[in-house]
Amino acid sequence: MARPILSIDLDAIATNWRALDRASASGVQTAGVIKADAYGLGLGPVAQCLASAGARRFFVATAEEGTDARAALGPGPQINVFSGHTEGDAALIRDADLTPMLNSIEQITRHFEALPNAAFGIQLDTGMNRLGLEEAEWESVAPYVLEAGPELLLSHLACADDPDHGLNEVQLANFHAMTDGTGLPRSLAATGGILLGPAYHFDLTRPGIGLYGGRPYEGAAPVVSLSLPVIQTRLVAPGEPVGYACTWVAEKPSLIATVQGGYADGFLRTLSNTALLWAGEDPCPVVGRVSMDMITVDVSHLATVPESLSLLGPMQSIDQLADTAQTISYELLTRLGPRLKRRYLESRR
């Protein structure tokens, strides 16, 4: 069976990392966030690409992801785990030389007891109310924890994509209050925080979505393109429906192409009857429901039906498609399924 082809431009990822590194204040280290299989694009190739570009510090969501990152990167680069040291992680952290960002007093206790001499960082809650020690908790354990020598003090901005949101300044002030005077490396900014300016950069920035071509980094080089092979075309007479539940009915004689790819591959059903695919510069509307394995597209206006149609590429970015799907680029990228044939593009070094 024909497979959709997801092309991933590793040079573009490297270009985006270097640009965000330059956008970070002088003397600030720039990491790379490669959680969720590098946002669906392949942890191994992306991690190696970022390391070649100059990244020496990486962030993943779980210890299991950290072991995959270590296998791809080898010894040397620091691999930080956002979820910290959860139950059962000790062997993974030790064997893969991971640095967990401890999020609670319970995690601090677990880590110090299981791996008393192992590296760690601390995540602080400055207003997002998701992960991290709250101010009172931090005050109660800070003397003991600081004596053990954390690698990093970290927090996460909730509204960095909106520069005018008042919570940004509140979180910045809270982070200063909780960390000033510690003398330790600090990190607050992901992609959005980098764009907020040097006040948010501290010692380490950690771009994620900006590496992969998504908002809020409007200047990002595009990273992904996606083409879906045409399986079959058919003429549909006026009054005939297309797809499940008859949500689209032809108003005139129409040539409909069925392409390979559906919600099993990560293409949301909200794209039904709304999205566009492209034949070069010619838009081709999706008609009918997106199904598990197939999408139907009106190609009546094309002089020649190509072998494949483009869902992502020069005519439609990941953010534009996300807008159509009423979601965000993060979700679309991380939903891209294993049936897609991933093709990596890079110049010869």
Key terms:
349 residues; alpha/beta; TIM Barrel; Lyase, Ornithine Decarboxylase, Chain A, domain 1; 2 domains; seven-stranded parallel sheet; six-stranded mixed sheet; 11 helices; 19 strands; 31% helix; elongated
Percent strand:
15-25%
Q: CATH superfamily of the largest domain, please?
A: Alanine racemase
Indicate the CATH topology of the largest domain: TIM Barrel
Tally of strands: 19
Your description of this structure?
This protein is an alpha/beta fold and 349 residues long. It folds into two domains: 31-212, TIM Barrel, CATH 3.20.20.10; 224-345, Lyase, Ornithine Decarboxylase, Chain A, domain 1, CATH 2.40.37.10. The chain contains eleven helices and 19 strands. Strands 3-4-5-6-7-8-9 form a seven-stranded parallel sheet. Helix 3 (43-53) crosses helix 4. It starts with a strand and ends with a strand. The mean pLDDT is 96.
Secondary-structure map with pairings?
Blueprint: E1 5-9, H1 10-23, E2 29-30, E3 32-33, H2 35-40, H3 43-53, E4 57-60, H4 63-73, E5 78-81, H5 90-96, E6 98-102, H6 105-114, E7 121-123, H7 135-148, E8 153-154, H8 166-179, E9 186-187, H9 191-196, E10 204-205, E11 224-236, E12 241-242, E13 248-249, E14 254-260, E15 276-279, E16 282-285, E17 294-298, E18 308-312, H10 318-325, H11 329-335, E19 341-345
Parallel strand pairs: 1-19, 2-10, 3-4, 4-5, 5-6, 6-7, 7-8, 8-9
Antiparallel strand pairs: 1-11, 11-14, 11-18, 12-13, 14-17, 15-16
Provide a compact summary of the structure.
The chain has helices at 10-23, 35-40, 43-53, 63-73, 90-96, 105-114, 135-148, 166-179, 191-196, 318-325, 329-335, and strands at 5-9, 29-30, 32-33, 57-60, 78-81, 98-102, 121-123, 153-154, 186-187, 204-205, 224-236, 241-242, 248-249, 254-260, 276-279, 282-285, 294-298, 308-312, 341-345.
